[in-house]
Design goal:
The chain is α/β, with parallel strands linked by helices. Helix content is about 45%, strand content about 15%. It is globular and about 50 Å long.
């Protein structure tokens, strides 16, 4: 082995060994996660527009995180990468609701710098496990180490710190998901269980306030808190006991309410 190859070999060994530092305190720069860990409520503004200026306005308006909507919008990962990078250093942490818990979706979302992965319509333990698996680097998961703008956003030690900072938010939206909620909440690596208010009604056929609907929400509430996880829901549920993670309004709603307030 020549000198250059020996140097590369030793560098590779050092890099692997430096990934795990038993006993070292976690370096947490995800301010949204810090706030949740302190028992405080978290509110995110929903972003569906690809305009970096609109994104920056949302990300610096006082929200704890941005809920970047990629399930119900035409946003591409290229769009979102530009948005996040244009507003690097903003006070709100970038969270992405991915279309599904696939390696492709989550790999792209994490590589462009997402600090939260929000996974919709989780009905099974297997889907919750997939969300964690593709979000976390080994040994906690199977995320591949590739190129991305994450280093420019979160530092050169990102590989060592990412697992401690990126949050996994699991959305339960169907009666099947509610039935499996206790097992889903027990999946290691899940941080938040989100009770999806609109789709719980959509899939169950019940309206908010109906006893059957409220029983679904109560079930999610109870198993989530029993598992020691944080509980999420719409901002309208801010005063419901136990809820600490909220999805706030989107750009159009905020512009409308802001305009009405200004005109008054």
């Amino acid at each position: 082995m020549g000198p250059l190859n020996r140097l590369l070999h030793l560098t590779a060994i050092f890099s692997v060994l430096s990934l795990a530092q038993p006993g070292a305190p976690a370096k947490i720069y995800n301010t949204a996660k810090q706030k949740l860990m302190q028992g405080k409520q978290l509110i995110g503004g929903t972003v569906s527009s690809p305009d970096p200026n609109i994104y920056c306005a949302m990300a610096n308006s006082g929200f704890d995180y941005t809920w970047i909507e990629m399930q119900h919008s035409p946003l591409t990962y290229e769009d979102v990468a530009k948005m996040i990078y244009a507003c690097r250093g903003s006070s709100a942490m970038p969270f992405i609701r991915v279309p599904d818990a696939t390696e492709s979706d989550i790999q792209k979302a994490t590589d462009i710098g997402a600090m939260g992965i929000i996974v919709p319509t989780v009905d099974t333990v297997e889907k919750a496990q997939a969300a964690v698996k593709w979000t976390k680097y080994p040994p906690a998961g199977r995320r591949s180490m590739g190129a991305g703008q994450y280093r420019q956003l979160w530092g050169n030690d990102y590989r060592q710190t990412a697992n401690d900072n990126i949050m996994v938010i699991i959305m339960i939206e169907t009666p099947i998901g509610v039935e499996n909620a206790a097992k889903i909440a027990d999946v290691p690596g899940v941080d938040v269980i989100f009770a999806a208010s609109t789709d719980l009604g959509n899939f169950s056929g019940y309206k908010q306030g109906d006893p059957q609907y409220e029983a679904l929400v109560t079930r999610i509430h109870d198993v989530t808190l029993r598992a020691g996880l944080k509980l999420g829901g719409p901002l309208a549920w801010k005063n419901r006991a136990g809820f600490t993670f909220f999805q706030g309004p989107g750009e159009t709603g905020l512009i409308n309410s802001g305009a009405q307030q200004t005109l008054k």
